[in-house]
Amino acid sequence: MSDSPHRPLPAGLRPETLAVRAALPPSQHGENSEGLFLTTAYIQPDAETSAQKFSNSEDFTYSRTSNPTVRSLEARLAALEGTEAAIATSTGMSAILLLAMGTLKAGDHVVCSRSVFGSTINLFAKEFGKFGVETSFVSQTDLAEWQAAVRPTTRLFFAETPTNPLTEVCDIRALADLAHAAGALLAVDNTYSTPALQCPAALGADVVMHSATKYMDGQGRVMAGALCGSNALIRDVFGPTLRTVGMTLSPFNAWVVLKGLETLSLRMKAHSQQALAVARWLETRPEVARVYYPSLPSHPQHELAMRQQSGQGGAVLSFDVRAETPDAARAAAFHVINSTRVLSIATNLGDTKSIITHPATTSHGRLTEAQRQAAGVGQGLIRLSVGLEHVDDICDDLDRGLSTLHTR
Ligand SMILES: *Cc1c(COP(=O)(O)O)cnc(C)c1O
Q: How far apart are CA 334 and CA 52, in angstroms?
């Protein structure tokens, strides 16, 4: 007997609907908002049922393996990315750890963009280097470098697009073709665009990786991560590894992200509109040497980005303050940052609150000056994660520093 008022969803629903509706069926209570199941274990009616459930990883037995709230998040995320399955992890980095543990062994080789998130570079080069996995770091945008790096042992291509802080864009479909021709998988870090703007699986990526800490939660509350892909990868490869290794997402954090996904599409459209308005305004400022944002026609991969990202640029942009020397550039950037009264001075992104960051002394602070120059992260570079405050208040806050740069 079931009192659950649940009716299965019809096929063919659009992403905005799936973001609100895709989840496990409600419990016998018929809750309209998905339940938060804070439980580590699950009572079984008898020993026979218990034995049967332990032999089937789809059943609920212990929350390191699976939990209904986490399962709802996985169902919703897979629906949005257009993949057969998804698996949630405790952080974005643990999603990449799970990817590497599931797909690589000693002697294998990875090709990775050198512009990806800093900890991603450390995870492949340092942590997996210790276990005999070699990684070649190549240009974000030059496909010939990816091709030239391929070896007989290449198992994985890893890309992130657009990148932070310079918003460089790579061609996901072209990379998928190169990876597959080499007998490798393509994994794409889709943290910045989210499935609201870009679905890498539809362009040929085998695994889509997320730091759900960023725009999926979207309000700066919890850490979370995920991998999305085929049942053959998610259920048969990553599932058993996660069960053993335990980088499980907490049900509470899963629930927060699950509710965050309901407004993802609206937020990403608003973030993108606001960021474009700020980017255009910055381009008119004489104190600004250059603005990096994919929706600007001045962006080197503008057309590719607009094609790949549903015509939207996302929330992250960077700009260079004009200055003669690196020291003067750093002083000018610090002045602009310190003159804000509304924006948060922090090193994070993916929040309704706008965040202003100086990459050269924070996210890229441990690089040498030469490495920073090679990465294009100068002392005058400022990164913004454009939030949902009124756009005029964001520009006014930047103007406080920009308009007083030469009167200091
Ligand atoms: C933040 C971030 C990560 C790491 O995610 P955590 O949730 O902080 O572990 C990975 N990739 C990108 C692009 C990120 O911005």
A: 62
